[in-house]
What does this fold into?
Amino acid sequence: MTISRLGTANMYDRTIHNINKQQNELASQMEHTSAGMRVLRASDDPVAAAQAERARNRLERIASDQRGLDAQKATIEYGESTLGEINDALQAFRSLMVQAGNGVYNQVQRDTLVEQLSSLREQISKYANRVDSNGLPLFRGLDTATGLPFPNDQEGIQSGQPNNGEFFIANALNGVQAFFTGKTGNGVLEIEPFLRDPVDDPEGDPIPNQGKAHADVGVIKDPAAAAEVTDPLTITFQDNAGVLEYSVDDGGTWQTYQAGEAIAVAGMEVTIKGEPKAGDGFTIRPSQTISTFEALDRAIAVVRDNGNFDGSTAYGTLAHGITQSLTELDTALNRVSTVRGLAGDLLNQAQRMGNTLLVREEQVETQRVAAEQYDAEGMVRAIAQMQTQQTSVSAALQSYASIQKLSLFNYIN
It folds into this structure.
């Protein structure tokens, strides 16, 4: 039978080692409990640590998407506000055009209105070329050579920015749709005062209407017939023994003209107002695409260029031009309102995306917390374990202090 001998020094070393181990475990438990974290480092629970890390990465991506969405939302809000300013300026321009049609105004007074109209036109052009806080155009159509979205008020090379991700909206509004999709006339056909060649001088300047007649923009009654018009048609007037007659497209049947009575032509009813003279007429042609800026320039020219040599106003041409311009301005206002409505829809999209990101962030945060933090029950259990460990360490220290006194040297002393 072999008797093993256990030295006092060896016993002390093992006791100290066990006490240190328990103290380290207590320190770890205190660290986790005070932080409320079940996993502080990967060694605590490798699987849970990996899950928490993936959750943090997803949270970073969500935060990045939210920052990008906020920036785009701010740009669209600025663009929508700018469209509101453009709308106000167009309304002011339209009011001045109505004022220019006042029959008691002379050309000098209308020239004063021209200055105001030109100022408003310049403001609208500046609004259309406005940029965001990053120096990028609010309304895409960017010409890289000039740095302006609409250089010289011409359509640029981009029509807008599409969505490019799940949580991204357009970062600009469609300036082409807002400013370059208008139509002349009523949108299908347009009517202009007829210019005829002088009989005694065929090479001379065309002669405009001499009377005070003007036409409305016409009402389309037969869209199919109106759509078939490709070449210009004319309505001309003649004096037949003191009776004013009109003919559609030079050579048709002459009919007695009744002021205010609608004339049917090319699937459209046109009402001639005022007092036409023999030789006067109107030309009807398909509507053309016109930009807001061209419509404004045409309107300004109508008010500016209809003065006679004696200082009076060529009222028939003026009235016709104002009627046409008001219709084209209404179209421009409708286009601005349409794009403004699209801006509102984008902002609603951004709001819904923001709500989705918020919900997703809460879900991912819940997953992260579940992976590395104590729940309520787990926290109670951790505190109980820590207190038990504290008791164990305290008991071990007290026992060690008592055992130390049992050495032979202490007995001899």
In short: The chain has two domains: 45-184+290-373, 189-287. Residues 315-372 form the longest helix (58 residues).
